[in-house]
Write a structure and sequence with these properties.
There is one protein chain. This protein is globular. The relative contact order is 0.10. A hairpin with a 4-residue loop joins strand 17 and strand 18. The protein contains no helices and 18 strands.
Amino acid sequence: VQPGDKFVLCTDGVHGKLYWGTAAEIRRSNLDGTNVESVAAVATAGYAITLDPFADRLYWIDNSGAGAVRVAALDGSGAADLVSGVTAGIGLALDRSAGKLYWTENHGSPTSRLMRCDLDGTDVEVVFATATGIDGIATDPAAARLLYSALAAGEIRAVGDDGTGDTAIVATGAYPRELSFDRLSQHLYWAEEGAQ
C-alpha cells in the first residue's frame, strides 16, 4: 500500500495477494507488499471492493453516472457492470455459500438500504431499509444475518438476511464505517472516524 492510498483492503490468501482501492484505481500486490500493479481503473474511488478468489472474481462499486456494481477477473480483465442503477453505494460483501452479493445504497442518508443479488447479477432485491444511514456491511452466514454500521445511531447493528430482527450489537459512540467479521473467531472489527 502506497502513501495516499486509502479505502478498503482485501486479502486473497488463495493466491497470496492484497487488493486495495485508491481514488483512481484498484491495485494489488503480493502479501509482502512487492509487485504492486494496477488491476482496474475506477471512476469514483475504489472504496468498496470484495473478492471471491475461488471463482476468480473481483467486485467493486462504481458511483459514477447511474452507479453500478462491477465485476472482473482478479487480474482486472473482463470488467463489466453486474448491476446498474446503484445509488450512492459504499458497502459491499459476499456470501459465497449462499451465492449472494450484498451492498448498501444511499450512504449515510435517511433512505439507506441493504441490497442483494445473485452472483450473476440477477434477482436484485432490497433486503432492509433504515433511517440510520448504513455505511459498511459484513455477512455472518452461519447466523443468517447481516452486520452493518448505522451512522446516525453510532452503532453496529445486525439484521436477519431476510430483513427482520434489526438489533443493536454495540454502541460505538462515533462514526462507524467499514466492517469485517471473522467467522472463525466470531470477532467483529470496524473502523470509525470519530464524532461527526
